[in-house]
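thought: fold this chain, then report.
action: predict
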Amino acid sequence: MATLARYYDGETAQAHEVSVRTTTNEVVIFRAADAAIMARWPLAEVAVLGDIRHEAVPPIVRRGSEARLVVGDPELRRQLAALVPQLAPLVEPPPAVARRIGTLAAVFVALVGVFWLVIDYGTEYAAPLLPYSLQAKLGESVFDELSNDKDECHGKAGLKALNGFANRLAKAADYPHEITVHVMEGGPVNAFTLPGGILVFFSDLIDQAKNSSQVAGVMAHEIGHVVHYHPMKGLARQYGIDLLVKLVSGGYSDALSTLASGGNLLLALRNGRAFERDADATGVALLDKLEVRADGISSFFEQMLEKEPKDMAAAAGIWSSHPPTAERIAATKRPAAGRPAFTDAEWKAIRDVCK
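observation:
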């Protein structure tokens, strides 16, 4: 059996159109363009991230690898699940509902789906093609909007260390533009990414980090969002094609008014499960590529889970914008090996960036 699917090799951000065939022992992945074999996965090593109840197309992975296979064809998913018991989550049926409610829900989902396809695919491919100058200007404007009631930290040595490492990561990912890191005083224990390669860290995250590898891990995760253009895609999806049209047509001030009138820029910038998984995988891959300690991402998640044992992402199920924390820990687990991201002097400067 063969059908088109999407394959991510875990080393680059490129999505490959592939065909998939199964044998009694393995899954064989072929490039659609020339039928070249891209990967062979033993059946005993494949697994599913998530399940069909919470995600439309949960990715298939090979244990111990960053590669992912996304099979959109329901029939192939059923065949794979029949051959490989651990792939059963690909075809778990939705909860039973009354016939009338099911019909109404199907009609509603179909209408929303048609609209979402326009938004999703339009922004997926159009957003990264916007001129970088527009993306950077938009990111700066959003940063001004979000930071107007907070104090920014200006420790030169700390900011130099953070910006230096961020740009090393971006260069390793072949991202062609400069990264700018800002540190805001206080909380929450968080960081986020804006269009144009702008990263914002809160000092509470730095203060509560157990070591420099955790800050480096969060940094690498955020660079994963940058290189996949997730912030631009998120804003465009939240506010629709209208935002892209205004930006491309020169209605820049109107576009900013659209964002400001939304009243919740952080909601628009939240990443979905697929974005978060992409950023996690890319972040770990970049740290490995630089031969820097890559255990900081998983240890940061472990620290979060210790402080909040009830995993809100898992409890929220389909309504959560993030994958379950335990799943993210397992996917990003790495040994505490490799060079430190920062020297002792740089780490001290980062810790003192707000002083």
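thought: worth noting. Residues 260-268, 312-321 have pLDDT under 50 and may be disordered.
final: tokens above.
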